Amino acid sequence: MITSCTHPHDRPHDRPIAPFRVADRLRQIAEVMHRAALILVLCASPSSYTTSCRREAARQICLAALRPLVAFTLLWTLVSLVLIRIVMVTAQSYGLSAFALEMVIRVLVVELIPLFAALAIGLRPSADPTAATHATAWLGNAWRESVVARSVAAATAVMALATISGAITLLTAYLNAFGFSLWGLGDFTRSVGQVFNLATTLGFLGKTVLFSLTVGMLPPALAMVRRADTAASGRRVSDLAAMLLLLVMIETIALSAQYV
Amino acid sequence: MSEPPLIDDRATPAHAEVKATLLITVVVTLLIAFVVYVMFARGVFERSRALDLVAENAEGVVVGMPLSFAGFAIGQVRDVTLGDDGKARIRLAIPEKDARWLRTSSVFTLERSLVGGVRLRAYSGLLDDPQLPPGSERTVHIGDATADIPMLLATLRTVAENIEQLSNPSSALNTSLKDLKVVAGRMSGPQGVLGAVLGEPANAAKVLTLIDQSNRLLAQAEQRLFAPEGLADQTQASVADLRTLLASARNSLSTVEALLADAKAVSSEVRVASADLGTLRAEVDLSLRKLSHLIDEINRKWPFARDTTLTLP
């Protein structure tokens, strides 16, 4: 169990010189990774899910996933509708309509939806983990339940948004390409099968899971590592930047692994 | 240590556990459905038969690309390998329900276009032929629209070199253009086209003089020809006379023709007469012989009798 936050103060006026700053930063990153791993272990432990924890997790899932679900889905449907239409019409004008559907699936479903779902959940204003890590609340079941509930809720929200938006985008792409009929189901299925080979499918699922874990585990880990006095001031911009950087790194690695 | 209360100013949603369970169920169901759909799309649940296509070059062929027949996908590429003979082997999976479109006489092509990817196509002209057995191996014909690009580039290079030679200051075209410019300058000079054609102004003057003389000669000739009682009128009168002469000659010829007809009739009569002349001559000869005999008889009678006996000395 995590016992305390024992990191030194790093005020701007008494920060160490450059070599020490780098070492300090590296040590902080290692500490964040360690805390995130601890939270992951907590979330993966069945013993963490007591009755109150399950209730809190359900509440957090409702707050984190259900509330933004409708807005995000509507917004993403509108965006995907415009993008799909542009791609379809452009490809058709160049005589490349056979590749348009594959491109739409590859770009929107595989690449953009998981990233945007993670950003929508991770950067939402209400996702302030300091509420669970405030002051001296590092010990005890309430803190543990709160962290587990919030992390699980954030990860579930990312998965829910990505999955539901992906399904709606696939449906939108089909309707754009073939209209309200079933005659194009074979071609559409073949295009989906051509895009989602084993590597792409595993990459897509793995990337979505990593995004979920990042959004779920990174904010409480950062808040735990952060000093208690700055935690009270709310979520820091550096936390958001760190999460954004990590998400982009995951996306870049996934793209490199698949296309390079 | 007492546990601090959780800080959350938002109210707990109604039926939070039910909603959360429902959401998780939907997400898990969608994920499972997605995986099953992808497996279905990849042909995992479909019985298929293998078909190997051997190609000289399998560039652009990727796993999952369709084999189309009459515009419909009837199979997918499952594997692309390089054989021991150095040729690419494209292994396709043909679903059993679509295998009937492939016959032993089917032809397979790998088409590359300038834009877009490659396409595998099958053509079955004779659908009465036996079906292609599983595990068959066929050679794929490659139609590459980009194959002509190197030749096209070589041709373009040659054209560019030719254009460069043409645009060279010492090229024949430039020299011709310079000469043409000189000729154009002369054409715009006082001697005009003649000066450009003949080169020297003196020659052009000679030609102009010649033209003047020709004009004068033509005027004189016109005067001689078309003046009253001129050569033209005389010729016209001669022609009229000639026409009269011809009419007279035509009449003469008619007369001659009649004479010839008469002569012909006469000659035919003469021919008949000459035929009777022999008879007449024979009769005349007979009459003459009779007359001679009568004279002889008379001579032997008195007083014309004479001694016809010769006395030899």
Description of the structure:
The complex is a heterodimer of chains A (260) and B (313). Chain A is mainly α. Helix content of chain A is 77%, strand content 0%. The radius of gyration of chain A is 21 Å and the shape is elongated. Chain A starts with 17 loop residues before the first helix and ends with a helix. Chain B contains six helices and seven strands, in the order αβββββββααααα. In chain B, strands 1-4-3-2-6-5-7 form a seven-stranded mixed beta barrel. The interface between A and B is large, with 48 and 38 residues.
Question: What order do the helices and strands come in, and which of them pair?
Answer:
The complex is a heterodimer of chains A (260) and B (313).
Chain A (H helix, E strand, L loop, with lengths): L17 H27 L6 H43 L3 H26 L18 H38 L6 H11 L2 H28 L2 H4 L5 H23 L1
Helix pairs in contact in A: 1-4, 1-6, 2-3, 2-4, 3-4, 3-5, 3-6, 3-8, 4-6, 6-8
Chain B lengths: L15 H26 L6 E8 L10 E4 L2 E11 L5 E8 L11 E6 L5 E6 L12 E9 L4 H19 L4 H16 L4 H7 L2 H26 L4 H70 L13
Helix pairs in contact in B: 3-4
Strand content of chain B: 15-25%
- N-C termini distance of chain A: 42 Å
Shape of chain B: elongated
Order of helices and strands of chain A: HHHHHHHH
Oligomer: heterodimer
Number of strands of chain B: 7
Count of discrete domains of chain A: 1
Order of helices and strands of chain B: HEEEEEEEHHHHH
Concise synopsis of the structure shown:
The complex is a heterodimer of chains A (260) and B (313). By secondary structure, chain A is mostly helical.
Defining traits:
A: 260 residues, mainly alpha, 77% helix, B: seven-stranded mixed beta barrel
